[in-house]
Amino acid sequence: MAKNAKFISEGGSSNRPPLFDGDNYYYWKDKMELFLRSQDNNMWHVLEIGEYVPLAKDSTNPKPQAEWTTTEADRVLLNTKAKLFIKSALCREEYDRIMECKTAKQIWETLQTHHEGTNSVKETRIDNGVRKFELFEMKEEETIDQMYGRFTSIINELNSLGKSYTTHERIRKILRCLPKTWRPIVTAITMAKDLTKVSLEDLIGSLKAHESVLQEDKPKSKMIALETQSGECSQKDETLCEDEESLQEDDEEELAFLSRRIQRLMTRRNQLKKNFQPKRNGAKPEVDLSKIQCYGCNQFGHYKNDCPKNKQKKSFFKKKSMMATWDDLEEAQSEDEEQEANVCLMTHSNTEEK
């Protein structure tokens, strides 16, 4: 069984051009320029000036191909080689963009215009890059290597657009972007060394040495902080779980209590409805009030609800109604229901006598 072909990473071969997938144009541009210069000394001249065309002596007319010398044929072939290298390095999307270009110079200029823009676009991008350079600062939890990586990416992008900074300007900017905790080492470097003669490698090396000294005490404090935070979080989680469980239990007890009360009321109501005589055609039966005796004052001619003595007690009952409990409400409702049942029984007996 044949083995699957392994992917050759970029930079694995000096004979293969670097791949460009549409991102980080300035990074690919620098590598591609180096690759083309390594193939032939005159290949980059083809991209800057254009395709070489042999001319006849003392005229501007091109020389016929049959009269070309070996050196002239080799220089003409450089344009084809440059086109091959550039097209081999592009992905499908970028390849479709330069398919109609005839020379290597046109291909290079098309890619440069698309990714870098025109002169006005370049100026705008340069202004944005300069603003990033001026506002650049090192973050609190960032290392020197991470900070220097972000700094060099800004510098390289500006270099690809034609804006460059000297080594002295870069060193001063790096010293200014450091946090307040680095002020002692910044003061020591500026007092002990001449910044105009210091290289970036020496500066980064001294900063990394000081960084290792600062990080000796940080792990202990971080471990203690992490332990305390983890303990606090676990305690908080336990208390929250207990509170949630207690609330759920209380809610379940209240729902069970309410459901039992409602079931009792519904059963009593259904029992009382069975004793009532159904109405016929929605008309109320006529009752002789002279034969009806009040259960409150034992007088004839009115019901207990219309009793004058009962009306005097209603005002006092309204004041106490808000303080009634479930049992009080049940007792009051049961009394009213018993009275209604008695009235219905009286009316039923009267109708039977008639």
Automatic annotation (TrEMBL):
Residues 328-354 are annotated as: Disordered. The keyword Metal-binding applies. GO terms for molecular function: nucleic acid binding; zinc ion binding. Keywords: Coiled coil, Metal-binding, Zinc, Zinc-finger. Residues 328-340 have a biased composition (Acidic residues). Residues 294-309 form the CCHC-type domain. Pfam families: Retrotran_gag_2. SUPFAM superfamilies: Retrovirus zinc finger-like domains (SSF57756). Gene3D superfamilies: Zinc finger, CCHC-type. The keyword Isomerase does not apply. PROSITE patterns: ZF_CCHC. Residues 248-275 form a coiled coil. InterPro entries: Znf_CCHC, Znf_CCHC_sf. Signal peptide: none annotated. This is CCHC-type domain-containing protein. It comes from Trifolium subterraneum (Subterranean clover).
